[in-house]
Amino acid sequence: MIYFPNAKINIGLNVLTKREDGYHNIESVFYPVMICDAIEATKNEGFGSVHLAAYGNDIPGTIDANLCIKAYNLLNTKFKLPSLNLGLLKHIPIGGGLGGGSADATFFLKMLKEMFNLKINTEDLKLYASKLGSDCTFFIDNIPALVSGTGDVVSPLPLDLSGYFICIVHPKVHIDTKNAYSLITPKKPEYNLMQTILETHIDSWKETVINDFEKPIFDLHPELAEVKNTLYNSGALYASMTGSGSALYGIFDKKPYLAEVLPTCKIWTLQPNSLK
């Protein structure tokens, strides 16, 4: 069985408060984009173990720390799963703010449910996903949503960008999320994110819709600010860093051609599917 976990972008990201547990309450709009990894699972002899073979982009950390392994162990505790061989092809950049690790783990949860016909309803699946990571819950429904809490509270939004092109740029800089949060001073935003996204035109977001990570990350990596400026100079209606970086994106009303102006970056130009 093969699944293709996709990435997401953040449209606005407000870091509101720091919690007693050390995490942060945030507010953001997540939008799915079709930059995909691939995961393939086949049954192995025995029960209760999974062997992971990873390909493509290098994955930092130990195998045991991989979220896909944690997803398997989480369900195995309750359902006593058969052993598996799991192949993971990494295409979504690591440390780019695109949610690739969260997507891989969540899609693997959905794969395990299908493979073994596990009796798990959608709400329980979301609960399992929330135990793996803050962004994971979003990838259960995998539709545009306003997220809050630590990123685990997901409210679907009727946001449809299918008439536009989304250009995602990865400058091959790795940003550690934990370190990025240490640079943030939480604060309440001066605008209503959901109202702004749903009730104003994209080309007015530039002055309002903010990613709180941009300023501290741009101070450390001014080359990222240059990429954002290039997106605007190339005709983007709106441009932003996604998550805690380092990937950036621009929303265009015409297909952009950026290879010549951003020759050192990895670039994807996507036209989202209609939500209708």
Could you describe the largest sheet, including whether it forms a barrel? Answer: 4 strands, mixed
Number of strands: 12
Domain count: 2
Strand content: 25-35%
**Portion of residues in helices?**
25-40%
- CATH-derived architecture of the largest domain: 2-Layer Sandwich
Q: Could you state the order of secondary-structure elements as H and E?
A: EEEEEHEHHHEEEHHHHEEE
Radius of gyration: 19 Å
Give the low-confidence spans.
Answer: none
What class do helices, strands and sheet pairing give?
Answer: alpha+beta
| CATH topology type of the largest domain | Ribosomal Protein S5, domain 2
The tally of helices reads: 8
Strand arrangement within the widest β-sheet reads 1-4-6-5
CATH class designation of the largest domain:
Alpha Beta
Separation, N- and C-terminal Cα atoms = 28 Å
Short overview:
The chain contains eight helices and twelve strands. The chain has helices spanning 67-79, 100-115, 122-132, 138-141, 177-182, 193-199, 214-220, 222-233; strands spanning 2-3, 6-18, 24-36, 38-47, 50-56, 82-90, 145-148, 153-156, 165-170, 238-241, 248-252, 266-270.
